[in-house]
């Protein structure tokens, strides 16, 4: 598979941005300055980016409570995101949504979501819009292994096939829903679920950007070409707790250390592109440096940004009332 | 008797009832946690905020059931199990998630007894967290007790302290109707003296946390604490308040509310839920209808604005009724004088 150099560069940059964003949030959260629940996407970067590298602003995605990576992969700016997480007026949602509700509809980002299983039905609707409006776009639902057991998700798989809409269901299977393993909570398997609802199934190693890119490309083309929905099952792992503050006693002691050492999608990517002579290390190092200062600036700006003011409380409940 | 937190009081109520009656079972997402994990540690969470910790160890996996993230099915299963011989306590985690399973509560559990001509009993308890103050934003912060109160067939409990929580939860488990038991998530670390032995607090009997002559305050859940704080401040200025904690919004102790309003002639209602069709409007309607002649001032409601719960701390603090707002409302009613007709 040939991937254009600019896509390789932008994909690496997105993955690095997500990593840096999340690692920094982990540190900042511990200072007590960040309010609310924060769910980090560290370790899962190649999934969001491998999928979204096939999309444009016209395509729609719906995300989850673990949404920062999807937002960045879909092009939401880190300044607005960081400010949102800090509850500032300059946040993408004016400080009213926070980490779990980052959204930018102008970029086809239909929102992170506080409700597990909230996204798949919305994506059926987005796919219906794309179909009826004939804009050639697709709609992608990201959801977890845990969310795959919600009735709303299973109903959406059925509906998407019944309506033959351009939807792709991306199961990000990190093996856990909160503190419960999917080996306990998920009956059967995702492949049979896809087959049960009559849609093609694609599967890939979520630590390998190239594998995700390839499989996502096939699933998305299937949907974009009018053949109806597809499922993409991405095997990956989260490196932090379910949310910040989770002691992760349900995971083996060395589990995360091993993942970091052996299954780092960024390390894998670097190795692959440099060994194949597709990109050179210095270009990647430059991106790392640029991203790091971008995140530093985002944090500094968020901390200095104004808080929402009293009037914001009552604004935007309705369009008109 | 010893000091216990709201969290411990609830845990103890569950434990004591599970010991007493083998038909009492627990289910919910990560009520234990750790199943399917790689460390082999069981009871890894004991509930998302640790409320059910330790129950798995004592009662085992047959009676403490971790569920998939599938509210419609396990809440419905709890209703079905309740109608067929068990006494399940199902945990919905955040009450906001009721959006995923309302049918099983509203159209199934709540209506069995009436629809089936009095033949069914559904001894089901659904526990869930409610309330703002956690920066948990619009989908994890609602105070949805009015939603349940609206539905005939459900009983609804909103405990205001650790002591109240233990007695009311034991009562809920022993009750033969479906009960929604709502725990304010910012109260889990509140402490007070709680008896070690099991005890019950009957539904539909309000608690007067203080008695005064000038103004009656009716408050729900966490707002009882705020109302008492406001009353303390007002007492310094010679305004004495009665504070009523109804404990249950369904059944509602209308008698106590009407008696107190008859005595004071002035009423402030403090309700943390959205202001339209909430408990404050319900109590206001009751008093307007039944105690109109006793009123010496318009009824005042202290509620959040008609908006979703905002994320940012500054906005959330403005959203939740505050001690200051309660105080101001009481002062306004206390100083109100009916204009003499010319
Ligand atoms: C309807 C609903 N039920 C439960 C929750 C609480 N909750 C938040 S995230 C989560 C686990 C989700 O697991 P998964 O879908 O695998 O996503 P992951 O966290 O692994 O990314 C749960 C149970 C919720 N937010 N919404
Ligand atoms: Mg998961």
TrEMBL record, chain A:
Its cofactor is thiamine diphosphate. SUPFAM superfamilies: Thiamin diphosphate-binding fold (THDP-binding). Residues 14-308 form the Dehydrogenase E1 component domain. Keywords: Oxidoreductase, Thiamine pyrophosphate. Signal peptide: none annotated. It catalyses: N(6)-[(R)-lipoyl]-L-lysyl-[protein] + pyruvate + H(+) = N(6)-[(R)-S(8)-acetyldihydrolipoyl]-L-lysyl-[protein] + CO2. InterPro entries: DH_E1 (IPR001017), PDH_E1_Alpha_Subunit (IPR050642), THDP-binding (IPR029061). The pyruvate dehydrogenase complex catalyzes the overall conversion of pyruvate to acetyl-CoA and CO(2). It contains multiple copies of three enzymatic components: pyruvate dehydrogenase (E1), dihydrolipoamide acetyltransferase (E2) and lipoamide dehydrogenase (E3). PANTHER family: PYRUVATE DEHYDROGENASE E1 COMPONENT SUBUNIT ALPHA, PYRUVATE DEHYDROGENASE E1 COMPONENT, ALPHA SUBUNIT BACTERIAL AND ORGANELLAR. This is ABC transporter substrate-binding protein. The lineage of its organism: Bacteria, Pseudomonadati, Pseudomonadota, Alphaproteobacteria, Acetobacterales.
Automatic annotation (TrEMBL), chain B:
Residues 4-190 form the Transketolase-like pyrimidine-binding domain. PANTHER family: ACETOIN:2,6-DICHLOROPHENOLINDOPHENOL OXIDOREDUCTASE SUBUNIT BETA, PYRUVATE DEHYDROGENASE E1 COMPONENT BETA SUBUNIT. Pfam families: Transket_pyr, Transketolase_C. Keywords: Oxidoreductase. It comes from the Bacteria. This is Alpha-ketoacid dehydrogenase subunit beta. It comes from Acetobacter fallax. CDD domains: TPP_PYR_E1-PDHc-beta_like (cd07036). SUPFAM superfamilies: Thiamin diphosphate-binding fold (THDP-binding) (SSF52518), TK C-terminal domain-like (SSF52922). The keyword Oxidoreductase applies. Gene3D superfamilies: 3.40.50.920, 3.40.50.970.
């Amino acid at each position: 598979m040939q991937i254009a150099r600019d896509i390789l560069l932008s994909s690496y940059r997105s993955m690095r941005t997500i990593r840096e964003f999340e690692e920094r949030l982990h540190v900042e959260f511990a200072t007590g300055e960040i309010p609310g629940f924060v769910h980090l996407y560290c370790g899962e970067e190649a999934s969001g980016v491998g999928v979204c590298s096939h999309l444009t602003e016209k395509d729609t995605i719906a995300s989850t409570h673990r949404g920062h990576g999807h937002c960045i992969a879909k092009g939401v700016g880190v300044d607005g995101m960081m400010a949102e997480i800090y509850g500032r007026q300059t946040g993408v949602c004016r400080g009213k949504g926070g980490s779990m509700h980052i959204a930018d509809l102008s970029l086809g980002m239909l929102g992170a979501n506080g409700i597990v299983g909230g996204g798949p039905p919305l994506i059926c609707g987005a796919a219906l819009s794309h179909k009826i409006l004939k804009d050639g776009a697709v709609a992608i639902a990201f959801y977890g292994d845990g969310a795959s057991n919600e009735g709303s998700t299973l109903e959406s798989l059925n509906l998407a096939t019944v309506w033959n809409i351009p939807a792709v269901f991306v199961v990000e299977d990190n093996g856990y829903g909160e503190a419960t393993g999917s080996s306990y909570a998920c009956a059967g398997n995702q492949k049979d679920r896809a087959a049960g609802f009559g849609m093609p199934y694609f599967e890939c190693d979520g630590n390998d950007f190239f594998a995700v890119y390839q499989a996502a490309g096939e699933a998305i083309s299937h949907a974009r070409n009018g053949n109806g929905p597809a499922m993409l099952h991405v095997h990956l792992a989260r490196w932090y707790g379910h949310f910040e503050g989770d002691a992760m006693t349900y995971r083996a002691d060395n589990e995360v250390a091993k993942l970091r050492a052996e299954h780092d999608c960024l390390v894998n990517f670097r190795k692959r592109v440099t060994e194949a002579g597709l990109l050179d290390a210095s270009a990647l190092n430059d991106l790392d440096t640029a991203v790091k200062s971008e995140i530093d600036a985002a944090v500094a700006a968020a901390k200095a940004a104004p808080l929402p003011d009293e009037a914001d409380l009552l604004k935007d409940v309705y369009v008109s009332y | 008797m010893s000091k216990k937190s709201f969290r411990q009081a609830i845990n103890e109520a569950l434990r004591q009832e599970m010991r007493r009656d083998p038909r009492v079972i627990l289910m919910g997402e990560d009520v234990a946690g750790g199943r399917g994990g790689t460390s082999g540690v069981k009871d890894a969470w004991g509930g998302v905020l640790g409320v059910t910790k330790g129950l798995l160890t004592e009662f085992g996996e047959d009676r403490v059931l971790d569920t998939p993230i599938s509210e419609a099915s396990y809440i419905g299963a709890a209703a079905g199990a309740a109608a067929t011989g068990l006494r399940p306590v199902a945990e919905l985690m955040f009450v906001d998630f009721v959006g995923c399973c309302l049918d099983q509560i509203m159209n199934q559990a709540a209506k069995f007894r009436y629809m089936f001509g009095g033949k069914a009993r559904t001894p089901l308890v659904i526990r869930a967290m409610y309330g703002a103050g956690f920066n948990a934003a619009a989908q994890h912060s609602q105070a949805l007790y009015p939603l349940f109160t609206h539905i005939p067939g459900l009983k609804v409990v909103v405990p205001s302290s650790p002591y109240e929580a233990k007695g009311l939860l034991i009562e809920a488990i022993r009750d033969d109707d479906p009960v929604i038991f709502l725990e304010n998530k910012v109260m889990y670390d509140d402490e007070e003296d709680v008896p070690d032995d099991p005890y019950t607090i009957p539904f539909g009997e309000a608690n007067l946390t203080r008695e005064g002559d000038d103004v009656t305050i009716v408050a729900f859940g966490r707002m009882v604490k705020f109302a008492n704080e406001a009353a303390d401040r007002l007492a310094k200025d010679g305004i004495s308040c009665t504070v009523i904690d109804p404990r249950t919004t369904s059944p509602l102790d209308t008698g106590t509310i009407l008696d107190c309003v008859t005595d004071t002639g002035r009423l402030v209602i403090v309700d943390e839920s959205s202001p339209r069709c909430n408990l404050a409007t319900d109590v206001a309607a009751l008093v307007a209808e039944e105690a109109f002649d006793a009123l010496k001032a318009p009824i005042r409601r202290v509620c959040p604005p008609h908006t979703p719960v905002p994320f940012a701390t500054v906005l959330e603090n403005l959203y939740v009724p505050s001690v200051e707002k309660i105080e101001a409302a009481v002062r306004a009613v206390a100083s109100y004088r009916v204009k003499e007709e010319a």
